[in-house]
Amino acid sequence: MYDLVGENIGAGDGRDALGQLMVQKQVVVFIVEKTGGAGRLELMPTNPTNYCTWVPTLTVADGNALKTGGMAMLVQPKASALPVVDASSHQMRLGAVGGAVTYDLWLVSRHYGT
Amino acid sequence: MSTRSAESEVRLSFSATIKNTLDDGQVAQVTLGDDNLVSIKLHSGVDADQANRAWARTGHTLTSGNTEDIDLYDFSDIDIGAGLGNDGLGLPMALEEVVTFCIKQTSGAGRLELMPTNPANYCTWVPTMTVALGSALKTGGAFLLHQPDEDALDVEDGSSHMMRVGANGGDIVYDLYLIGRHDDEASSSSSSSTSSSSSSSTSSCSTSTPSSQSTSSTSSSSSSTSSSSSSSSSCTSSSSTAARTTSSSSSSSCSSTT
């Protein structure tokens, strides 16, 4: 979630749609939607190392894994929004249970300090 | 005998434009978005893409340091103005599935926590959002969970039906919106004899977060760029209900623009 390393949306690894490096220090809007597939989409089925603690846990076991059309949104517009700290609190994990899933992920965030 | 039903709508749009201003003033920009990230009408019923109950409590204050437990099955301790445990029509609530759950902190210096601790017989699908986790809501913050498919977010009376809200560090005022299903009432009937009552309500909430930042850039050349962004998000929820052949309709929408 900090630098989106390993993610290439078509403009280069870890880059936004303009081809510029992503660095997020606060997330203001977090939206994940399951758009297709027979499986269920889990968020944080287990916690990766150095995970973002604010990413909600959505799992089949808890009864809130997303089915097709399901969506979770967390909005925090005030100062000091949802923190992302490189190397210590910056990872999120998604999982597919019972089949493949197709999903959208939308982020609005703040990068400051430079 | 009256029959209760609901017509609901949930909408979510997202738009974000990121810009990169070059030294010479030229601007490169890309707009990301989906006007209909979620756009669904939930017709009355208990199947996929259906719902037959709606409930909202708005402008509710919770004082600092306190928590309150909400029974998502029958709302037994809550009176929104139409009787304990009743919906806006004065008819008893009994939710067996929640399709749309939305909570928003509308004001107050404190932070809204969800499930700071788990009450007995809690709904496992209500996520934990706390100050310790960094996810407690501040004013303008909102959480929405939407599950329109069959077997949505389950509520079991007596065993999995409670949620807890807490106010951390100050008072909070919040709204809670629910669209759900009463499974055992496919053609929902009740014995109330409300002859021809009707009600409607609309509420909305919005947040905006303009922000800008600049970064100097890229590559080994001396050129520099600045990028900027602004964002806003809004949620609206409305419901209307009518009784004697009691029907209700509700809609909610959320949008985020950057």
Describe it:
The complex is a heterodimer of chains A (114) and B (258). Chain A is mainly beta and 114 residues long. Chain A has strands spanning 26-36, 40-43, 71-75, 82-83, 94-97, 102-110. In chain A, the strands form two sheets. In chain A, strands 1, 3, 4 and 6 form a four-stranded antiparallel β-sheet that branches. Chain A has a two-stranded antiparallel sheet with strand order 2-5. Chain B has 258 residues and is mostly beta strands. Mean pLDDT of chain B is 79; it is low at 187-225 and 230-258. Helix content of chain B is 0%, strand content 53%. In chain B, the strands form four sheets. In chain B, strands 2, 3, 13, 14 and 15 form a five-stranded mixed β-sheet that branches. Chains A and B meet through strand 1, strand 3, strand 4 and strand 6 of A and strand 2, strand 3, strand 8, strand 9 and strand 13 of B. Strand 3 (71-75) of chain A pairs antiparallel with strand 8 (142-146) of chain B, so a sheet runs across the interface.
| Range of helix content of chain A | under 10%
Biggest interface goes to: A-B, 43 and 59 residues
**What's the shape of chain B?**
globular
Mean pLDDT of chain A: 95
The fraction of residues in strands of chain A falls at 25-35%
Shape of chain A: globular
What's the N-to-C terminus distance of chain B? 50 Å
Helix and strand run of chain B? EEEEEEEEEEEEEEE
Terminal-residue CA separation of chain A: 18 Å
SSE order of chain A: EEEEEE
Strand count of chain A: 6
Number of helices of chain A: 0
Rg value of chain A: 14 Å
Averaged pLDDT of chain B, please?
A: 79
Strand percentage of chain B, roughly?
over 45%
